[in-house]
């Protein structure tokens, strides 16, 4: 136990040394807080349209102006953040759940089981993401939940591969052989001994996965297949700005969501990179 | 006296020179017609289904007749026609000397080939339904006969069509391009679909097909030997332009004509070298109710919902004024349109609430109307693809909320939405119909029609529709359809939203256009392309 | 080595492609919507035509029958006929659009590698300098901006405001296909598609090179007194480039997916727009054809990456 505590402290110290990573973490926390507190930060209902106030540039009444349906863009950016963040988190959750289980099974049992699971992973991996997303959103209609499921289900191969690699690494070491000799059952070996070591690369992968999911959701919504109107998502807000005359003359419609996506993904990437450096024992520069 | 005469002569001479100088068309140049969707490559008049293939067919082929800017049939390949007293026979008299692009003369044989192929048992196209009332068509289609008595070649330049019953819309259907039988008759009808001819069409039209680059452009050159006079322009190009970049192309003078969206109007109207024409289209958009559901089977509910939606605001603000609020399924552009006795259902939420209350709907604890335990909450199926439709749906949802009706928007990809509609699994949905030249509403509104999505079944409406198809006198037909519109306007099986309005942007260098365009625009579809000239 | 390749194709490639095509066909047939939807607008349509058309396209058959039939055609090299009214061979449709997508993908790969590798090398060489920090920052920026947003920004700046580049599309009718013309139309889409490539390649190059630079055997070379540059460029680079090659295999799927969006924004006449159109119309043969092609390309790409890895590194040998 003592060893684990000092390990975590060491990792944290290494993380803090990376200025960009710390900055990213701060920004990330800021976004999360702001999203959660959205109702307190704005009085406007992000879905309520007022056609008399369409396309208005930023003003005192509307911090970021209004969109083509007269809705307040500041409110929509805030609430859109909620949606983008939750899609990112839930889809990674789904992806991890599937990936960790399948990867562990593949890694632990090896042989035929391993081959079959990895082939299935390859199948999912070759799937052109956009096409599958388009097809599924046609079957079930575009919605927040379907987007989360699609993104989660399509990205499990990467976490599965990761887990499997961890298992392969440790499976034949004296460590796990010793554990089995003592009489620990396979499940126990898996969870108590191997899994904790896999957490570091998994955490890094998950963090970057959230960034990737947010980008993918934005892409889907941009094509009209992700989060459907009237609910705001940064991606579908950008979609509304596609006509060139809006692009050219009404930048307040697309700059807030675009910059928001960019900043959040950037922060997550900084954090993920920082985590990777912090966990990596080879980068010993203390 | 002589001096005055000379003076008059001089004046007349100079006037005529002036007039002539204005009107003499210049030859040459390339006309760039902008399209937002690329054609498929089925350039065969009896096999195509896509609109943009029709654009190509329009200029490469000529048909017996041509529909003019007032939606009336005019002679083309046929110089004249006669309809018999009983309305059962149409005889077309063809011009002599019309040639296909390969030099072979077009005769009645080619006309017969074109129409008979549509009736052939192995025909793979979709036009049979338009001509199935020709005498002997059914037997021929079923393979029981080897010829169609209803298509009779009298001589090289005369052909007669006979029908089993009078059918008013039939005449307008004779605009199909005439195929060169000498190039096609040896191909089995079932294999016409994959013939190379469809990608390299030969017709008798004003332009010869040159090249088709998918997703980019189609090019044509003027038909030097065109029977009705060589077109003034040398080359015609259908240029694919993406919807969003239209204003840029117009600005940079890379397009001579293209249709623009209401959102682009302001930007384009600022351009000095571009003229804009706004004309009423033969289309209407609607919100259909599923009349198979009890709650929508009550006409009071349908009328109340219509009163409760601010359609005028939708047209004025969301469509930026480009549209006309509709109250019946006959657009203003159609000759059968009437506004006599038509209720306009002006936005009146109080009246809507009152009507709903009288129909037995009372507010529940959450503010949503309910009756006998059933809430007035339903799903609005909205096919995606149009920003304006999306905005309309949002406005509708809000307006309904204001009168206590909960509407759940279901945005869906177009094909999937059509599936739901075909399966009748919808509460309400929105779409639009693009109409044919003839106002016959049978295909959409008759109770036996497949496309009668609401499930509207009114014997009076059916009777009027059937009557209208058989009546060949236009004035009488007009009356019948006026009556029918009033019936629909009262019943509201669908809420009618707006009649379409098209905005055409044309470069000022194009001369000879129709400056007071009907529904087909300043180029009358593609017809004036053979007459316009370019002034640079 | 050939044995390895064949083994991979048979044991990995074939089953994966089979599984993939099976799943894909299943999904598209389950999806609501049918290829005959467009018949809705045809006036006076005789309803028998719909059933006739469905029979002609084979979509009235159960999914398994359709799939097996399609598979049978594929094995004989026939991609089938498009479901739309022109019924053109799928192979022709793909051939017409493929050059455009390949040009776009290649350009973005060239940009990615051409800019990314030198930048990554320099970044590693001058580690912890201002240059390094700036490059690292921009690399992060590059992988964080959604490609479509970046594309819109580029459009806004170069096409709308400065008006120096076209706002999408390809050569117009009659426009001569000059090299300069290609560059003009290609520049914005390729930059948009290539942005994340440039960024990831630069970062991976940097970290890979750094890793190698710290290896023991290099310390030996340094201690022998060889100049720093020679150390880097001769010994380290070769080893550092290896992981980048495998990176290519991973990046291909991303590039293809990204191409769909980029082609959409810039109306680039490539396979992406054909794919989207085919999806909307439930044009099964075209959907399957394009996807199969991409899957094969991706698979081949990963084999090539692995094999070149083996070539470059004598330590790795495949039975």
Q: What is the gist of this entry?
A:
Chain B is of the alpha+beta class and 536 residues long. Helices cover 29% and strands 23% of the residues of chain B. Chain C is mainly α and 319 residues long.
Description:
The complex is a heterotrimer of chains A (286), B (536) and C (319). Helices cover 74% and strands 0% of the residues of chain A. Chain A has helices at 2-17, 19-36, 38-41, 73-109, 111-126, 129-140, 144-154, 156-171, 174-182, 186-222, 234-239, 244-249, 255-279. The radius of gyration of chain A is 22 Å and the shape is globular. Chain B has 536 residues and is α+β, with helices and mostly antiparallel strands. In chain B, a hairpin with a 5-residue loop joins strand 14 and strand 15. Chain B has two domains: 42-201, Dipeptide-binding Protein, Domain 1 (Dipeptide-binding Protein, domain 1, Alpha-Beta Complex), CATH 3.90.76; 284-500, Roll (Dipeptide-binding Protein, domain 3). Chain C has helices at 2-30, 48-57, 63-75, 90-125, 130-144, 147-161, 179-213, 216-223, 228-265, 271-281, 284-312. Chain C is mainly alpha-helical and 319 residues long. At the A-C interface, helix 5, helix 6, helix 10, helix 12 and helix 13 of A face helix 1, helix 5, helix 6, helix 9 and helix 10 of C.
Tally of contiguous helical segments of chain A: 13
Q: Which H/E pattern describes the elements of chain A?
A: HHHHHHHHHHHHH
Number of helices of chain C: 11
Shape of chain A: globular
First-last Cα distance of chain A? 23 Å
Distance between the termini of chain C: 7 Å
Give the tally of β-strands of chain C.
0
The most extensive contact between chains is: B-C, 49 and 45 residues
Structural class of the secondary structure composition of chain A?
Answer: mainly alpha
Secondary structural class of chain C:
mainly alpha
Computed over alpha carbons, the radius of gyration of chain A is 22 Å
């Amino acid at each position: 136990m003592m060893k684990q505590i000092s390990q975590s402290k060491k990792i944290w110290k290494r993380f803090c040394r990376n200025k960009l990573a710390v900055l990213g973490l701060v920004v990330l926390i800021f976004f999360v807080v702001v999203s959660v507190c959205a109702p307190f930060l704005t009085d406007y209902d992000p879905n309520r349209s007022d056609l008399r106030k369409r396309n208005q540039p930023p003003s005192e009444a509307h911090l970021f102006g209004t969109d083509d349906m007269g809705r307040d863009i500041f409110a929509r950016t805030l609430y859109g953040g909620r949606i983008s963040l939750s899609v990112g988190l839930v889809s990674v959750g789904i992806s991890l759940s599937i990936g960790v289980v399948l990867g562990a099974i593949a890694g632990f049992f090896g042989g035929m089981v391993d081959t079959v699971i990895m082939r299935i992973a390859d199948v999912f991996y070759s799937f052109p993401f956009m096409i599958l997303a388009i097809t599924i959103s046609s079957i079930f209609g575009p919605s927040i939940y379907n987007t989360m499921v699609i993104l989660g289900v399509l990205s499990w191969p990467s976490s599965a591969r990761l887990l499997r690699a961890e298992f392969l690494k440790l499976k034949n070491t004296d460590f796990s052989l010793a554990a089995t000799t003592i009489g620990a059952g396979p499940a126990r070996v898996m969870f108590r001994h191997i899994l904790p070591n896999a957490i570091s690369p998994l955490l890094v992968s998950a963090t970057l996965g959230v960034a990737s999911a947010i980008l993918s959701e934005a892409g889907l919504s941009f094509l009209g297949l992700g989060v459907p109107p009237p609910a705001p998502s940064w991606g579908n807000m950008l979609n509304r700005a596609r006509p060139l005359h809006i692009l050219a003359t009404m930048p307040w419609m697309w700059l807030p969501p675009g910059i928001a996506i960019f900043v959040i993904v950037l922060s997550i990437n900084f954090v993920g990179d920082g985590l990777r450096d912090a966990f990596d024992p080879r980068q010993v520069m203390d | 006296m002589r001096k005055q005469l000379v003076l008059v002569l001089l004046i007349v001479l100079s006037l005529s020179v002036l007039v002539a100088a204005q009107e003499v068309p210049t030859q040459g140049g390339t006309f760039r017609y902008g399209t937002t969707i690329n054609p498929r490559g089925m350039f065969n008049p009896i096999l195509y289904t896509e609109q943009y293939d029709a654009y190509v067919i329009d200029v490469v082929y000529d048909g017996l007749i041509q529909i003019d800017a007032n939606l009336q049939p005019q002679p083309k390949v046929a110089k004249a026609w006669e309809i018999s007293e009983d309305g059962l026979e149409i005889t077309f008299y063809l011009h002599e000397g019309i040639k296909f692009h390969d030099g072979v003369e077009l005769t009645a044989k080619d006309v017969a080939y074109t129409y008979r192929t549509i009736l052939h048992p192995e025909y793979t196209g979709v036009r049979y339904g338009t001509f199935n009332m020709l005498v002997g068509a059914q037997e021929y289609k079923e393979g029981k006969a080897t010829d169609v008595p209803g298509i009779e070649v009298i001589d090289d330049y005369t052909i007669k069509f006979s029908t089993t019953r009078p059918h008013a819309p039939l005449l307008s259907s004779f605009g199909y391009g005439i195929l060169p039988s000498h190039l096609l008759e040896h191909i089995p009808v079932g294999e016409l679909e994959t013939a190379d001819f469809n990608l390299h069409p030969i017709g008798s039209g004003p332009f010869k097909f040159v090249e088709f680059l998918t997703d980019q452009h189609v090019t044509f050159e003027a038909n030097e030997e065109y029977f009705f006079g060589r077109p003034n322009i040398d080359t015609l190009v259908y240029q694919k332009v993406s919807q969003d970049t239209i204003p840029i192309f117009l600005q940079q003078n890379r397009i001579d004509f293209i249709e623009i969206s209401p959102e682009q109007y302001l930007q384009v109207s600022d351009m000095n070298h571009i003229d804009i024409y706004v004309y009423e289209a033969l289309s209407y958009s609607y919100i259909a109710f599923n009349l198979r559901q009890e709650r929508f089977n009550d006409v009071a509910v349908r009328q109340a919902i219509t009163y409760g939606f601010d359609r005028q605001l939708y047209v004025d603000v969301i469509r930026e004024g480009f549209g006309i609020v509709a109250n019946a399924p006959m657009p203003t552009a159609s000759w059968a349109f009437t506004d006599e006795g038509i209720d306009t259902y002006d936005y009146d939420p109080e009246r809507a609430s009152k009507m709903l209350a009288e129909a037995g709907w009372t507010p529940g604890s959450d503010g949503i109307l309910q009756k006998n335990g059933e809430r007035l909450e339903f799903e609005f199926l909205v096919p995606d693809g149009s920003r304006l439709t999306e905005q309309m749906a949002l406005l509708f949802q809000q307006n309904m909320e204001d009168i206590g009706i909960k509407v759940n928007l279901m945005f869906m990809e177009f094909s999937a939405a059509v599936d739901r509609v075909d399966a009748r699994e919808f509460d309400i949905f929105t779409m639009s119909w693009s109409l044919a030249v003839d106002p016959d509403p049978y295909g959409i509104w008759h109770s036996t029609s497949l496309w009668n999505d609401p499930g509207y079944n009114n014997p009076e409406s059916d009777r009027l529709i059937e009557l209208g198809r058989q009546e060949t006198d236009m004035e009488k037909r007009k009356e019948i359809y006026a009556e029918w519109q009033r019936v629909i306007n009262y019943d509201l099986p669908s809420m009618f939203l707006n009649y379409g309005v098209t905005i055409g942007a044309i470069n000022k260098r194009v001369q000879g256009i129709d400056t007071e365009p009907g529904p087909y625009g300043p180029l009358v579809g593609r017809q004036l392309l053979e007459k316009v000239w370019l002034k640079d | 080595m050939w044995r390895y390749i064949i083994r991979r194709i048979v044991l990995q490639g074939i089953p994966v492609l089979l599984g993939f095509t099976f799943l894909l066909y299943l999904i598209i047939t389950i999806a609501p919507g049918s290829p005959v939807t467009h018949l809705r607008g045809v006036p006076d349509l005789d309803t028998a035509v719909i059933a006739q058309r469905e029979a002609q396209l084979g979509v009235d058959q159960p999914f398994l029958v359709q799939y097996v039939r399609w598979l049978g055609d594929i094995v004989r090299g026939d991609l089938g006929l498009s479901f739309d009214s022109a019924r053109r061979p799928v192979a022709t449709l793909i051939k017409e659009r493929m050059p455009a997508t390949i040009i776009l993908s290649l350009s973005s790969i060239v940009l990615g590698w051409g800019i990314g590798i030198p930048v990554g090398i320099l970044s590693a060489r001058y580690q912890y300098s201002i240059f390094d920090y700036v490059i690292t920052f921009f690399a992060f920026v590059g992988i964080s901006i959604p490609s479509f947003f970046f594309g819109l920004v580029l459009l806004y700046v170069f096409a709308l405001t400065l008006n120096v580049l076209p706002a999408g599309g390809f050569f117009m009718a009659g426009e001569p296909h000059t090299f300069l013309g290609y560059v003009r139309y290609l520049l914005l889409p390729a930059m948009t598609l290539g942005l994340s490539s440039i960024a990831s390649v630069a970062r991976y190059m940097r970290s890979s090179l750094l890793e190698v630079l710290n290896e023991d055997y290099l310390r030996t070379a340094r201690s022998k007194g060889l100049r720093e540059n020679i150390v880097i460029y001769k010994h380290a680079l070769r080893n550092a480039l290896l992981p980048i090659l495998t990176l290519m295999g991973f990046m291909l799927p991303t590039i293809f997916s990204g191409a769909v969006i980029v082609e959409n924004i810039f109306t680039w006449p490539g396979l992406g727009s054909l794919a989207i159109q085919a999806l909307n119309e439930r044009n099964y043969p075209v959907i399957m054809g394009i996807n199969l092609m991409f899957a094969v390309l991706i698979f081949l790409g990963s084999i090539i990456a692995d094999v070149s890895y083996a070539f470059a590194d004598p330590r790795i040998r495949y039975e």
